[in-house]
Amino acid sequence: MVFDTRRPIPGRTALGLLAVGAALALSACGPVPLLPPALSDGRTLEPEPTETSSPEPRPTPPPEPTHTPEPTESPGPEYVSVFALEEGDCVAEFEGREGISQVPVVHCDEPHLYEIYYAGDLDGDEYPGEEEVISMTSERCGEEFEDFVGVEPTRSELAHRSLFPTEDGWNEDDDREILCLVHERNGDQVAGSLEGARR
């Protein structure tokens, strides 16, 4: 594919506590021993109260410190074939103008120069010549621009470029695909999509 250069670039204490509780229940509720009658003066002896104590609460261990993950750095661009590009992909840059085969793709939240807003095929059997391919590509990209950005290309602060098949690609690989890319007219990078930018 080549660039249309005529357009501007776009988540065990329970058992232990149960055992303690059972032992306390046995000592508090068992029968009280009686004195023999010879030692009794006729008075009824009241059993001395037994102190019952509940087990001391176990201290709660302090909460484990939470670990805040370190922010991860952007993995950087992934170089992919131009034939694998789709609408919605964002491209960091192009290193060449002609015969492009691979481009650096990044997530659209990362700074980038271009966003693919349209991918489609041209019609035709025989290769019509580069000028005609450029003309058909520019026309199609212009038609699709307003649907994506929200304003006509002639009234927009943004611009668009395109990738289109070479003659060899057309004839030997049956390549008819074109890609339309939107970008800032002044060449500044963008973070985020330009869909519906309306400017």
Write down the overall geometry. Answer: elongated
Number of helices: 3
- What is the string of SSEs from the N terminus onward? EHEEEEHEHE
Q: How many E-type strands?
A: 7
Biggest sheet strand line-up: 1-6-7-5-3-4-2
Please state the structural category: alpha+beta
**What is the first-to-last residue Cα distance?**
29 Å
Indicate the mean pLDDT. 76
Strand content: 15-25%
**Low-pLDDT segments, ≥5 res:** 5-40
The gyration radius over C-alpha positions equals 40 Å
| Multimerization status | single chain
Question: What does the main sheet amount to?
Answer: 7 strands, antiparallel
Proportion in helices: 10-25%
Q: Which labels suit this protein?
A:
22% helix; 7 strands; 199 residues; single chain; 18% strand
